[in-house]
Amino acid sequence: MSAKDRRKKVIFDHDCSSAATDSPSTDSSSGDLPIILPPAPDTPLSRPMPKRNKGEPSLSELQDNIITARTLKINQRADSLEQMVIINSHTIEDLKTSLNHLYVEIQDLKNDKTKLAEKFSQQQKSLVNLEKRIADAERYKRRWCLRLCGLSEQPNEDVKVKVCEICDVLAPESCQKGFDVIDIARRPGKPQPGRIRDVIILFALRSVPYGGMPKTASS
């Protein structure tokens, strides 16, 4: 028994003895018996619960706090990843739409390119045909011309007058005069010292150079 319990027991015994002494004496004639109180039971006193320091959480509380913090952090990261996934999904959809538009435009460009290639091929054929026709026309036009070689060249000369005089001499029986049948008479190229240029005569009628006129004449 502890000292505190012994002290409480001594106080309790003292109180009991004092009560017995102070109680009125009984008369033998009355026959009343004195009232004796029963002793108090010897019950051990319960010890108070030790106080826990608030600044030192228990192991389970620490584990719960760690789990809560990790869970919160994981949830935050999961929310961030979800937002990123949503943004990336919208971006992918926009890119998909843009690619579809680009694909349609590329297909249109391919079709336009095919059409342009076909048109270019047709134009190439037409150009070749035109060049051939121009060459034929120039070759046919040259049949209207006559080259005169050896005609002396003088500065500021009138080539057409000289050519008409030569034609009148070479074909006096022609009923048409030179000025009537000769359209152009000129010397091609630039004058060069020591070199006599030929004279090209273009007749107004194709039948003139083939009607008895010589194809080449000299002075």
Automatic annotation (TrEMBL):
UniProt keyword list: Coiled coil
Residue ranges that the Swiss-Prot or TrEMBL entry lists as coiled coil: 92-140
Recorded superkingdom: Eukaryota
Low complexity composition-biased segments: 17-30
Region (Disordered): 1-60
Protein name: Uncharacterized protein
